[in-house]
Write a structure and sequence with these properties.
The protein is α/β, with parallel strands linked by helices. It is built from nine helices and 18 strands. Strands 3-4-7-8-11-12-17-18 form an eight-stranded parallel β-barrel, surrounded by five helices. The protein has a four-stranded antiparallel beta sheet with strand order 5-6-16-13, with no helix packed on it. Strands 1-2 form a two-stranded antiparallel sheet. The longest helix has 16 residues, at about 275-290. The structure holds flavin mononucleotide (FMN). Flavin mononucleotide (FMN) binds next to strand 6.
């Protein structure tokens, strides 16, 4: 039997496969397809202090090898999340990582605080980089802004903190370095890239928001580059995401050193993608005679 457990800080994940924020419903939407306990973890849709309606429709559209979305962080807010979603995950044997965002460092801390005493929540992912909110919510293009958020959240929780970064910063490695310095335990790479699509028949933008975040296989090489560079230069824990659709994709990210991987857009195409990837990683390592995922991780030949 291949050992798939993966340790970050004091937290042991049963396997390195998680699902990416915003691509896996809010609660039980995927439960008809498979048992969430098959995954190492679930990363929730972004939660904010107050409910948000999100952007006008249409807010998703398909593109070549991916999709654009401009959901605009629709969610029911922290209070409803604590009441409705947390109890659902209490009895599920997978690590729950709650993704939070705010319009300021203080608001991030306010959103994170209520989860700090929740045993069901194993870690927080801070969405420093949502591209689809008017006025922008991008704290991860600027090291000082990113640091402020991490410090504010670190002050209210001892949970493991992952800073989710944009690939559109001038120097992603330096932002990653800054957030680690400020008290993050790892980084999530990558959020979507801003793109646009046009509907020729209607002669309008495909999204009401005009621009949206590009995700899916189209962005995998960009994600790969950032994961590789951050791992090589900083050796800090990384959750990798960006176009991971098959076990082969996941294994490639593990090869460059990703600690965990997240399945995002692929969930919309194949709701079984995440458990199939767990099984595919297991089978590959078994076939290769590798005893544990730890022996495989970061073994890219240069
Ligand atoms: C429809 C949709 C909604 C998303 N919502 C969020 C979100 O609420 N918070 C967040 O941090 N990332 C969000 N993301 C970004 C994903 O978590 C992920 O970083 C990105 O899509 C890249 O991975 P992928 O190519 O596998 O989808 C969303 C992505 C999609 C496609």
């Amino acid at each position: 039997m291949v050992e798939l457990t993966t340790k970050i800080g004091d937290l042991v994940f049963k396997n390195p496969v998680t699902v990416a924020s915003g691509t896996f419903g809010v609660k039980d939407e995927f439960a008809p397809y498979f048992d969430y306990a098959l995954m190492g973890g679930v990363i929730t849709k972004t939660v904010t202090t107050k409910p948000r309606e999100g952007n006008a429709m249409p807010r998703i559209c398909e593109t070549s090898a991916g999709m654009l979305n401009a959901i605009g962080l629709q969610n029911k807010g922290v209070e409803a999340f604590l009441k409705d979603v947390i109890p659902y995950f209490r009895s599920i044997d997978t690590h729950l990582i709650v993704n939070v965002a705010g319009k300021s460092a203080e608001e991030f801390a306010e959103a994170a605080r209520p989860f700090s005493g929740e045993a069901t929540v194993k870690a927080l992912e801070l969405n420093l980089s949502c591209p689809n909110v008017s006025g922008g919510l991008d704290f991860s293009k600027n090291a000082l802004e990113a640091k402020k958020v991490i410090r504010a959240v670190r002050a209210v929780t001892t949970k493991l903190l992952f800073a989710k970064l944009t690939p559109e910063a001038e120097n992603v490695v330096s932002i990653a370095e800054a957030v680690m310095e400020a008290g993050a335990d790892g980084v999530s790479l990558i959020n979507t890239l801003v793109g646009m699509a046009v509907n020729l028949r209607e002669k309008r933008p495909s999204l009401a928001n005009i621009t949206g975040g590009l995700s899916g296989p189209a962005i995998k090489p960009i994600a790969m580059r950032h994961v590789f560079e951050v791992k090589r230069k900083l050796r800090v824990p990384v959750i990798a995401m960006g176009g991971i659709t098959t076990a082969k994709d996941a294994l490639e990210f593990l090869l460059v050193g990703a600690d965990l991987i997240s399945v995002g857009t692929a969930n919309f195409i194949n709701p079984m993608a995440a458990p199939e990837i767990v099984q595919g990683i297991r089978e590959y390592l078994e076939k290769e005679g590798v005893k544990s995922v730890g022996d495989f991780r970061g073994t890219l030949k240069l």
